[in-house]
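user: Kindly work through both lines:
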Amino acid sequence: MDQLTPEIIHVVCSFLEIKDLRNFRLTCRAYGDIAACHALREVVFYLHYEDFKALEAISRHPIVSKNVNSLVYVAHALPTPMLSFDEFVADYYSEREDHQAYMDLHSLLRNRPSPPLKTRQLRASYRKYKETMEHQIRIIENREDYHCLRDVISRLPALQEIMISSDNWEREAATYKTPFDGCMQRPYVELRPEGCRQLVTVLEAVASAGTQLRKLAAGSLDWRFFRDECDLVKRSWASLANLTVVEFYIDTAIDDDMETAGVEVPECRDVLRTGVLRKFLTSLKHLKGIYVKFTYHSEDHGYAARVGDIIENGHYWPQLSSIGLGNVEGERQDLEHIFDLHKPTLKHVCLEDFCLRNTSWKYLLPNMRQILQLETVCICGAIQGCDEHSDPPVEESWVCGSSFWGPTEVGVAVNDFLKGEGSEMPLKDKDMEWLGEFE
């Protein structure tokens, strides 16, 4: 190893996992400095005082600070109001009983459960919880996260990417420890509207620091952001003008009983019909990737957005290589026009829970295959269309699977077909799954 050049060591470190980098840093000072360049390219943090202390330390490290490329602000916090000690204890025993019942139900509890915590242990955990809650309240009231991030970001010269993450969107949260682990209370999406406060805070801090971003991702993000924060986007324009990737996973809400999805679709649709999102994306001249998905559509109210609410008809991005749309409606001609305009560069397409209102996937798929030379493709979720030759119109509907449950046979066949494998149309009437009439 002592004969390897620093350039080779950098290449080696670029392939190592974080835990391996930490061990590698201990070998010697020279290797430690090189590993430090790779150890914290992405920094994940919560609305927690210990995380903001850590951010401050990272931003002042002479090596690490120069190599932080991405910040991920997880939009989870402890629920309010603060619990009393008696409520805290009652919650502990309730959670314990629920967990034991679940383990018994699934025959996962082979041994006797561990004994409950003693009162002194519960008091120690409550002190930690109370301290964390008091800090959280102060951070929110005094906007301490903004003041911290403004200073921190100004000391991160390599920063290019910002993500606001909630509901574990795009992240395998189970693999990450959180600063709330010692509180015996699980953080969740406490601050409403979801994701908005965190995104506003970060955009203000980025604008104040003069940082130019290349990637902006947020989800789940409440649709109200696009209604209420247009002025903020304008003020932050110098930091956003050179974005190459934009990812929004927009929440259209589920009711309190967790039974009716898309209850705020009409309000979201009214906002997007103004063109606020479409105009923002159109103004970005260097886009390479666009991903706009919605959490739900509604059985009663339909879809929150049409293709034209997101992508300006006829607009061309010279470098566009990836596009993803989810829980969106349109016609195959809308998509075919976008694909034809961008066929020299477009190599990655994802359409999830996509509805063709009056046209058929049986025509879209062969046309996509003819127009595009795709490297990756994902047609997933429930895809809906309409037989173009039936009178009255007959609904078409197939289930292609998901990233969570895995693809169905239909989904595999569709994606293989679009990559040029086989010549037979993969969508067959016998494989249709009825998902209800169009609204």
